[in-house]
Amino acid sequence: MKIDALDHLVLTVADIDATIAFYARALGMEAVTFGEGRRALSFGSQKINLHPASAPIRPHARTPQAGSADLCFLTGVPLDEVIAHLHACGVAIEEGPVPRTGATGPIRSVYCRDPDGNLVEVANVQSAA
Hints:
The protein is 17% helix and 40% strand. It is of the alpha/beta class. It has one domain: 2,3-Dihydroxybiphenyl 1,2-Dioxygenase, domain 1. The chain starts with 7 loop residues before the first strand and ends with a strand.
């Protein structure tokens, strides 16, 4: 057996509306509703399902907890523009730009935090020169 791709992941959050507002405003994700009123964030061909920390949807992680995630998102937008946009949205840059290694090779990243304190990395893929 071999896995081909990631379809979605689940983020446990304290306040779904605050989470959607942050990711839509700061990262350009789209809020979606599916199933019986469940909420998610959509970007590219991926989705982040949102579970309320006060009532996680079953089945769920053994210890669902808001603020325990570390996420990395790729963008083609130059990091100088990403930083300016995040600052305009009132989002503090915690670190970066710094070189890192992504799933397929070198990336350059900046780090910030979402309303729950999850670490959010936004990165550009670097060419292997």
